[in-house]
## 1
Amino acid sequence: MHKIYAFIFAKGKSTRLKNKNLRKIGNKSMVEHSILIAKKIKGISKIFVSSESNKILNLAKKNNVNCIKRPMKLCSPNSKEIYSWHHAINYIENNNDKFDTFLSLPATAPLRSVYDVKKLIQNFKKNKSDITITATKTNRFPFFNMIKVDKNGYVKIAAKKNNKKKLSKFYEITTVGYISTPKYIKSTNNYFSGKVKFIEIPKARSIDIDDKFDLDFARNLYKKK
């Protein structure tokens, strides 16, 4: 039997927006939105919440999903998300459990739909990628409005080449979802090192909440659903 395990990585500490993952959109916290979506998809065998926060883990228990206590060192602003992925996979394997497909549904994308996640799973099954991510079209281009700052504080356009014909091919990564295999994730510290594909998510469902502006914007969009 092919087993898909869904993971929700939700830190208690957040830099720009305090208690971000426990903030509510509608009557549910952002963590609960991810849990609810995962529960609606029949192909998912188990759901795990990974966090260092007892509040978040207790919320996961109330929603009858599995908990993974994450070490504090994996919750610092400088810790790569993929290291938490490694930790979660090792935790499961150390408990004599095995699964085939790793699905990450970050709490910071509460406006994702069941359709988005099903499409992600179906796409991954059909294609030959090591990992499939989600992205949305962007109106910000490195040739026009992305700048870098030098040591003297002066700015320059980040990208040198300017090909107007290819501008429509730029996308922004979203946190709607990531899907891969445990084997591939354990083999790398950078998921772009392998064969990466993506599915496109509409901008209205791809909001990645990082600060209060994002939260207020997401709440307004949610009211209109």
## 2
Amino acid sequence: MERIDINGVEVFIEEAENYIQVNDISESDLTKVWGHLIKQYPEYEVNFCFRNVTIPIDILSDIGAEILDDCIKMQLTSNDYIFCESYEVEQLKKEDFASFAAFHDKAYPEMYWTSTRLLDKWDNWRIFVTKNGDKIIGYTLLLIAMKDKLMGEIFCVAADNFAHHKALLSVSVNYAFENGKNIVIYMTDRDNTLEQDSALAVGFKNVGFYKAFRAIAQQK
């Protein structure tokens, strides 16, 4: 994504995808920026992401924004990590990416991080999988390239039961800690008890929230 400044506000733009992301924006800044986006980037999808800040609900409603994600921010330090005996989990090799891509794009067809984007940024991610024979039945996306080099993020865990979910999560955070990370964060869906229970099982703690809204840059 290209990072630009609009009226003093940091905005991330992916022009090839007609996509814009804005983080932790205040009501006054959103008012200033929205008119510019309508004029310069009509019909772009705009995602507004908030972490532990006051959310300008009224203006988001005025521009037609709809809730996209409502998550609990979970955080784990290396000191709090609880190792879990687990099902066999392995790190995905690049030569096996095609089978993962088919599974991922079917499981999350609307996720920004499609298999194509993940492959383009391969070095930024570590992907861990569980299999039934040669067939992938679950995976974790671990983001290791963050501004804070001592932090990693569990971006997604796809698993259909607690044991597999906990195993994938445990192996992923263990990898992060063994490779220089001190903190791992994980945004769990507020209504997904499987995500929250497995996070708690390996030592994560609830430390805040994350909410995202989606709007189209057009006049209402």
